[in-house]
Amino acid sequence: MDHLTGKLDELDWVTNPDETRKKIIDASSVLYARKGFADTSLQEISEKAGVTRSVTRRYVKTKSEIMRMIMEDILASFQENLIKMIKEINDPEEKLTAALYIYLTVVDQQREKALLIYQKSSSLDRASKTRVMQLEIDVSNIFAKIISEGIEQGVFKKVDVDLMAFNIMILAHMWVLKRWHFKKRLSLDKYFKLQLEIIMDALKK
């Protein structure tokens, strides 16, 4: 740490890169939501994160790269929690239920970041936009694999797997996009149960 400024410096970047990365992601999420993507500078992100500008530069050269990091952070959290929960689950219905609950929970916990992806993705440079789209496909593929297993085992009926996987993702995103409406009458758990019924009605034989 730079003892004159109190900011994380190059040594912190080397010794604890994950914590430093998270500080930058969290700070940028807050500033983007408050000020907007275009009006937020890398210097402001560094100040908010409590790191030196040179450390921020170690991770990102542009604000678009930070948006990519935000999406990667959401996906990593989903994958990490999903692997732990479904490790011992063989039944496709139970596995899909767990996957939906975990994804919905992660999206809710990081809803400011999820909203930013929707609101600002058009402002990204081409490389970052391509990366964000691929990360969305990576998430859909997790659901697609579970659905395909269910079809193979005769638990689920034959459906357009890719379309159904994206439908599930959008149902989870809708909690964030339209939370201003649903939060008046639904808890997260109630929303999950209602959407799960819709999904299973569409899949089960």
Number of strands: 0
Relative strand content: under 5%
- Helix proportion range: over 70%
Listing every helix as H and every strand as E from the N terminus to the C terminus, the arrangement reads HHHHHHHHHHH
Low-pLDDT segments: 1-14
Architecture (CATH level 2) name of the largest domain: Orthogonal Bundle
Distance separating the two termini = 59 Å
Detailed description of the structure:
The chain has helices spanning 10-15, 17-35, 42-49, 53-59, 63-86, 92-109, 111-120, 126-152, 161-177, 179-182, 188-203. By secondary structure, the protein is mainly alpha-helical. The protein has two domains: 1-61, Arc Repressor Mutant, subunit A; 63-203, Tetracycline Repressor, domain 2. Helix 5 packs parallel to helix 8 and helix 9 (161-177) runs antiparallel to helix 11. It starts with 9 loop residues before the first helix and ends with a helix.
Briefly characterize the structure:
The chain is mainly α and 205 residues long. Helices cover 76% and strands 0% of the residues.
Key traits:
205 residues, Arc Repressor Mutant, subunit A, 76% helix, 2 domains, mainly alpha, single chain, 11 helices, Tetracycline Repressor, domain 2
